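Q: Convert this sequence to structure tokens.
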Amino acid sequence: MKNDNNVCKTHFRAKSFTSFFLFFSFLISVLSGLGLYLSPRGRIAHWIHWDFLGFTKTDWEAIHIVFVAVFLIASLFHLFWFNWKTFWCYIRTKSTHGIRYGWELLASVVLAVLLFFGVYYRVPPVYSLVDLATWIDNSYEVQRNQPPVPHTEELSLRQVARQVLNCDVDDLLSRLETAGYPALRASEKVQDLAERHGITPRQVLDILESETISETGVNSEISHVVDDSHAGLPSSGGLGRKTIRDLAREYIISVDDASEALEDAGIQGAVAGDYVRDLASQHNKRPSEIALVLWEISPDR
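A:
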């Protein structure tokens, strides 16, 4: 009989399972929250295929939603199914004999309210965590990480040819074939093509632009409007994604001189932060024509 008392019970304990599950759900929720806190804004995350611990922002969003939801459900289950009698007994006892830690309860409520309104009214240092998140987001906002148009990765190759590179779609498909990244069809999305070949959407566009440069010696957009005397026009590709300030710095001219040159060429109202693609579209020109105007006054010409 003594041995029977020492027999290890092997039946499944739902309360212990729920406690362990709550713990692991909490850890994963914290980890996914950290991943989302460190992630860039959606358009950039998708464009550069940002990842944290091997998971993309979309992955972390899904993980966070699911585990926060199951954590909430498990918490309610843990309270109302396993500990409701204990909890209700505690509430009745405190309501009958009074709250023993009244000042502590009041202080916690006041602190929670102060934090809530501190965030709402953006009061430092309460808002510092949000400011840090904004700073992290802005750190990704460099020119190379910017898609030429919002959500370029969702465009089809036909749309990229027409809206971004301003070239014939058959020529675009040929460039991909030459680079070793053949497309299935013109309607294939940039993101699908990138995933199929294990590269990022940004690299797809870089490949297209670099292929254009390798074929002509200059950017394809410029090849339509320059003659041999302009074959040395410097460009790393992606003129449309650059601003007037970027080109002025690249061509070693001042922004004021750039604006004046553009105005003389009939391109009115250009400012330093204008994107070349937007300026070109407004004046029915190619981005290369905008660049050529500035290159003409460059001391390196």
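Confidence is low (pLDDT under 50) at residues 212-232.
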